[in-house]
Amino acid sequence: QVQVVESGGGLVQPGGSLRLSCVTSGRTFSVRAMGWFRQAPGKEREFVAGIRPSDGSTVYGDSVRGRFTISGDNAKNTVYLQMNRLKPEDTAIYYCAARNIGLATMRTYEYDYWGQGTQVTVSS
To answer: Residue 97 pLDDT more than 90?
Structure first.
């Protein structure tokens, strides 16, 4: 089993920045890719960004490309999501997920482990 814990959410004004963290523990040697997703009230869970820790390759959702950056620290079993130029529409619960095979994908069902989420609210 792999445990996933997110942190770093909060309230920020439009145009501001936040950095989310995602720490994995347990059988972390089995993790091949990590992803960030988000879910706003009444909407489906949406892919935000993904990373393959072994080579640092990344992928982004269209709505955040150019504003968000995903990165990882393998020694700390931690993945970060740096969010810049935040907009009110970025308001959501942000979830971190891990999968045991393959690349970081945009499909929620391909991830094996999920965190509980951290709330991000962008409002003036």
So the answer is: yes
